[in-house]
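Running co-folding for flavin-adenine dinucleotide.
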Amino acid sequence: MNINAFKNKFLDNIYTEHKLAKYTWFGAGGNAEILYIPEEEISLEKFLKEKPSECNLFTIGAGSNLLVRDNGINGITLITNKMNKISIDEDGIITADCGAVDAEVARFAREHNRTGLEFLIGIPGTIGGGIKMNSGAFGSEFKDVLIDVKAISHDGEYKIFSNKELKMEYRKIGLKGKWIFLSARFKSSYGAKEFIREKMKKIIHSRKASQPSGVKTGGSTFKNPLGKKAWELIDQAGCRGLKNGDAMISEKHCNFIINLKKASAQQIEELAQNVKQKVFENSGIKLTWEIERVGNK
Ligand SMILES: Cc1cc2nc3c(=O)[nH]c(=O)nc-3n(C[C@H](O)[C@H](O)[C@H](O)COP(=O)(O)OP(=O)(O)OC[C@H]3O[C@@H](n4cnc5c(N)ncnc54)[C@H](O)[C@@H]3O)c2cc1C
């Protein structure tokens, strides 16, 4: 089937040349050639089985770790935000769909007196993105709480991966192949609601004190090099508050880049590359990106 016949078939859920900026935290970047927002697993499976096999496919969760470049993404961009159910079974195992927001999962666990998932309250992504990034905060990461993940290949074949099979490391996984994570099961243990609420409050408070809030950003731009803090290296290189157009290194947390108003993805990327160069000149350390850059320059 050619791409036009395919588009017509899924007309209700497909948008063409659609702006992606509003689906990312940076609020910058270009269009999706084809945007698809599935509401349930079964329709996604049908879509994948019918899509032209050569068509590129990229998945977005909350877009909180992404910089979509200014000339957009070729092929299909899939957004998972409508697949967001959360449930708990009699053994206390929590299952969350890929598009469920991390903070919602944290609150769900709290309301069911389950402790262990409090760290999710501060990560502004979805479960799918959190698995792909092995996201973490306050001493916990997805690796510590994930039991297994149900995934679907870009051709529509299902598979369950155990935590071990994902080979989760600091802000990355080692799974081979192209997979969309559909849902995940998490372990937790009994905890009194009030105790969990207090833990979450502390996390929220501590984040507000150390990170910019209510701004357009992609979170930590670079990974922490072993034994070092990226923000310290950036600060020591004199980059705090550095600007490129409307893109600026946060004064509050200098591993965060902020889009002050209308920064282009190019301005954001150039600023980060400039910081990377200055850090290298100052410390001899090569920072590596934590934020994923996707699409055409
Ligand atoms: C203010 C702020 C604070 C942050 N704080 C933290 C923090 O404390 N700790 C931390 O680890 N991160 C943090 N981040 C980064 C970000 O929130 C995490 O990496 C988050 O888990 C990304 O989830 P997402 O749904 O937004 O993924 P996206 O940004 O949408 O995508 C990230 C990657 O995941 C892939 N992906 C998304 N969904 C799926 C899916 N269903 N199946 C397969 N692949 C998928 C995408 O293709 C992409 O490769 C922060 C970001 C911001 C903006």
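Result summary
The chain is about 30% helix and 30% strand.
The domain at 86-195 is CATH 3.30.465.10 (Uridine Diphospho-n-acetylenolpyruvylglucosamine Reductase; domain 3).
Job closed.
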